[in-house]
C-alpha cells in the first residue's frame, strides 16, 4: 500500500518518540467531563498529570456544526436522549476561550495538552495554540476534508478507527498522506459507551500495524483497566482512556470513565506491562536471577555417602539436588567412571576440580 512507503513507523509527539520500541503514549481523555466548569477542567489536567499520563486531551466542537437539528437522539444516553444531539453537545461543549488557559496549565504541570477537533475552525484554533498532535475521532474517519485539514497543519495525526473497515482506514491514511501528514497513528476502538471487553478486538492492532506500517494503539471505552493494560502488553503505541473526577457527576461520559485513582492504576499497569515485554532474547539468567537463584536454586550432582580419594564414581554414588553451582545433572555420563582426586563426604556438591 502506498501509505507504508510514505508514513513513518514512528514519530514524535511534542518531542516524545512514539511507535515500536518506545513506551506506550498514554492519553488521559477528559473529553466533555469538565461539565463546562473551568475549575473542574483544570482539576482534570491536575489528575492526568498526577497519574503519570503523557497527555491530557479534550474535545473541541459545537453541537450546531456537528449535528443536523433533525438528527434523532441516542438511546444509550438515557435521560440525556430527551435532547437532540445538537442541543446536548452544545450544552456540554468545551468553551473554546478556555483552551489557552488549559494549555498553559498543562504545560505548568509537565503534561501535553491537545484536543479532538470536530470542525475546520477548531483545527485552525488548535494549530494556533501549538498543540503537539491532532486527534480524529472514530466518527470522523469518513470525513476527508477534516482529515486533510488536520494533516495539513504538519502536526502528527492520531485517528481512531471505531466501526471502520480496513478499506475505510486505508482511505483515511490516503487522505492524510495526500494532505502532507508528517506522521499518522491509528487507534483500535469500539464505538460503544461503555464497550464490552469481549468487543475490544485488540488483535486488530496487529492487523493494522501489519497492513499499514504505522504506529497503532487503542482508544478504550471499557469500564476497567484490564483492556488498556492488555493493549500495552500487546505493543500498543498509544492508549487513550476517558477519565473523570467522579463517575456520579452529571453528564453523558462520566459513567464509563475512570476515577483518579483508577487512572493512576491504569498508567502504572501500562508501564509495568510494557516493561515486562523485555527484548525477546532468551539468553540465560537475567541480572536479578543471577544474584542467587542461578547458583542456589538449580540442581547439581551431589555425592551420596563418604568416599576416599581414588574412588571410581558409579551412578549410585550420585544424586541430583540443589544448589546449582556444581556439575550439572546433564553431565552425569561424563562423571560416572572417573576417579575422585580428593576425599568427599555425603551431600558434598560435586565439582570438576574434585575429579
Mean pLDDT: 94
Rg from Cα: 29 Å
Q: What is the distance, rounded to the nearest whole angstrom, between the alpha carbons of the first and last residues? A: 65 Å
Q: Stretches where pLDDT falls below 50 for ≥5 residues?
A: none
Instruction: Kindly provide the name of the CATH class of the largest domain.
Output: Alpha Beta
Helix content: 25-40%
Write the layout of secondary structure elements.
Blueprint: H1 2-6, E1 10-13, E2 16-19, E3 25-31, H2 38-51, E4 55-60, H3 63-66, H4 85-92, H5 99-108, E5 112-117, H6 120-129, E6 134-136, H7 144-151, E7 157-160, H8 166-178, E8 184-189, H9 203-212, E9 216-220, H10 226-233, E10 238-242, H11 260-277, H12 287-291, H13 293-296, E11 300-303, E12 318-321, H14 332-335
Parallel strand pairs: 3-4, 3-10, 4-5, 6-7, 7-8, 8-9, 9-10
Antiparallel strand pairs: 1-2, 11-12
Helix pairs in contact: 2-11, 7-8, 10-11
Amino acid at each position: 500500500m502506498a501509505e507504508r512507503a510514505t508514513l513513518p513507523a514512528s514519530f514524535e509527539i511534542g518531542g516524545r518518540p512514539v511507535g515500536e520500541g518506545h513506551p506506550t503514549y498514554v492519553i488521559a481523555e477528559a473529553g466533555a467531563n469538565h461539565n463546562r466548569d473551568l475549575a473542574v477542567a483544570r482539576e482534570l489536567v491536575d489528575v492526568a498529570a498526577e497519574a503519570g499520563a503523557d497527555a491530557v486531551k479534550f474535545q473541541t466542537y459545537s453541537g450546531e456544526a456537528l449535528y443536523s437539528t433533525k438528527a434523532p437522539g441516542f438511546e444509550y444516553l438515557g435521560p440525556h436522549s430527551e435532547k437532540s444531539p445538537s442541543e446536548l453537545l452544545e450544552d456540554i461543549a468545551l468553551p473554546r476561550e478556555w483552551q489557552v488557559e488549559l494549555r498553559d496549565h498543562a504545560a505548568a504541570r509537565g503534561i501535553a495538552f491537545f484536543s479532538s477537533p470536530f470542525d475546520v475552525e477548531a483545527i485552525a484554533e488548535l494549530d494556533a495554540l501549538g498543540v503537539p498532535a491532532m486527534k480524529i475521532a472514530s466518527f470522523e474517519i469518513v470525513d476527508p476534508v477534516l482529515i486533510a485539514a488536520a494533516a495539513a497543519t504538519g502536526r502528527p495525526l492520531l485517528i481512531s478507527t471505531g466501526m471502520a473497515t480496513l478499506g475505510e482506514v486505508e482511505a483515511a491514511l490516503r487522505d492524510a498522506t495526500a494532505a502532507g501528514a508528517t506522521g499518522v497513528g491509528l487507534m483500535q476502538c469500539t464505538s460503544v459507551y461503555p464497550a464490552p471487553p469481549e468487543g475490544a478486538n485488540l488483535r486488530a492492532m496487529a492487523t493494522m500495524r501489519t497492513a499499514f506500517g504505522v504506529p497503532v494503539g487503542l482508544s478504550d471505552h471499557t469500564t476497567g483497566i484490564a483492556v488498556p493494560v492488555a493493549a500495552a502488553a500487546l505493543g500498543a503505541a498509544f492508549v487513550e482512556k476517558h477519565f473523570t473526577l467522579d463517575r456520579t457527576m452529571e453528564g453523558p461520559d462520566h459513567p464509563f470513565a475512570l476515577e483518579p485513582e483508577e487512572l493512576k492504576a491504569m498508567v502504572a499497569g501500562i508501564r509495568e506491562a510494557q516493561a515486562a515485554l523485555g527484548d525477546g532474547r532468551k539468553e540465560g539468567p537475567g541480572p536479578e536471577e543471577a544474584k542467587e537463584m542461578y547458583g542456589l536454586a538449580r540442581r547439581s550432582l551431589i555425592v551420596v555417602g563418604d568416599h576416599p580419594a581414588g574412588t571410581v564414581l558409579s551412578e549410585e554414588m550420585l544424586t541430583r539436588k540443589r544448589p546449582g553451582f556444581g556439575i550439572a545433572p546433564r553431565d552425569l555420563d561424563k562423571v560416572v567412571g572417573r576417579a575422585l582426586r580428593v576425599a568427599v563426604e555425603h551431600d558434598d556438591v560435586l565439582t570438576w576440580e574434585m575429579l
